């Protein structure tokens, strides 16, 4: 599925809707260039999950954990940009948190897919002339086979 997001507010809003769908054990792998909206989308996911703390890029700390404000899973937000490969991702011991949290891995393509058989793979592409982004979503695994992700996320989008 493909969605057109006209601005950062729309990216945050779709993240909120996505956050409302996610549950403990879910993995989201984000791909996109610098400025494509990966952290903006994750900020919306954090709002949808109702977690504590400002969701900002974890580029220099590699991973941040945002506990829930109410009952629900925590958000583990990872930036794999500076990681040298799968071994360094394994060193983060994310699988210890995976069943208890929603895990979002920015720059995760080619690295994070092995963390879970069920996952959402999201690619964001920014138009350099505007603030528009195209979001491609690929649902992988049995968890997502029963859910019409497109219908749930498409509410209010412009694609």
Describe the 3D structure:
- By secondary structure, the chain is α/β, with parallel strands linked by helices.
- It has one domain (about 1-150): P-loop containing nucleotide triphosphate hydrolases (Rossmann fold, 3-Layer(aba) Sandwich), CATH 3.40.50.
- It has 6 helices and 7 strands.
- The chain has a 7-stranded mixed β-sheet.
- The longest helix has 14 residues, at about 10-20.
- The model has no long low-confidence stretch (mean pLDDT about 85).
Low-confidence stretches: none
Task: Assign the CATH topology.
Answer: Rossmann fold
The proportion of residues forming helix, as a percent range, comes to 25-40%
- The helix/strand class is alpha/beta
Q: Which percent band covers the strand fraction?
A: 25-35%
CATH architecture: 3-Layer(aba) Sandwich
Instruction: Describe the strand arrangement of the main beta sheet, using strand numbers.
Output: 1-7-6-2-5-4-3
């Amino acid at each position: 599925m493909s969605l057109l997001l006209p601005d950062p507010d729309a990216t945050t809003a779709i993240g909120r809707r996505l956050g409302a769908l996610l549950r403990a054990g879910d993995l989201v792998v984000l791909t996109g260039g610098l400025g494509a909206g990966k952290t903006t989308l994750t900020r919306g996911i954090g709002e949808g999950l109702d977690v504590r703390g400002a969701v900002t890029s974890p580029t220099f700390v590699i991973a941040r954990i945002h506990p829930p404000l109410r009952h629900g899973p925590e958000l583990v937000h990872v930036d794999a940009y500076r990681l040298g490969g799968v071994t360094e991702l394994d060193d983060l011991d994310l699988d210890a948190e995976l069943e208890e949290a929603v895990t979002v891995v920015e720059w995760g393509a080619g690295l994070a897919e092995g963390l879970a058989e069920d996952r959402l793979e999201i690619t964001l592409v920014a138009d350099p002339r505007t603030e528009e982004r195209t979001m491609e979503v690929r649902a992988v695994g049995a968890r997502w086979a029963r859910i019409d992700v497109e219908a749930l996320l498409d509410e209010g989008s412009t694609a």
